[in-house]
């Protein structure tokens, strides 16, 4: 990661400024429904930021839909084929990227109907969620959050990476999930999301974020 200047900000102010930035994403023929990534390890809580931005967009009159990749995990029989703590399987095979392309991005392509499936699989019950499709009005924004997002070539119109420094993930990740930490380190080395994302948010101290905006 190169040297990026970050400025301190509050979460409330960050949500407002990001929402204002997203208002500039106007629908066009190539992107009728703009798509935004909130990328980050679970300890960085990118989903919380996505929800905060969605609420800020709502009060500004712009519809949005928050979708988490944790609702698109593959069945347990596939995720745990090589054991419950296989880093390689987690890095490359836990998330059903084909379903995300089909059920989330496909409906938002030019000529799509805007009906997005908000989740597909419940990892707690290991069954399909059977959630109904959600219609996203024309010009509405998709806010997709989750880890490892920027290595799949998903067609995002803007990406936000929520960054943790090297010492933060072990402190903020439950002990039972520490086996996943090498996957996030590999992702940082291979995909370099801190450099490739359009906007960077540092969340080492959950009370005092900073951002590159």
TrEMBL record:
| Native organism taxonomy | Bacteria, Bacillati, Actinomycetota, Actinomycetes, Kitasatosporales
| Protein name per its UniProtKB record | Uridine kinase
Q: Which organism is it from?
A: Streptomyces spongiae
GO molecular-function terms, A-Z:
kinase activity
InterPro entries per the UniProt record, alphabetical? P-loop_NTPase
Q: Could you tell me the keywords of this UniProt record? A: Kinase, Transferase
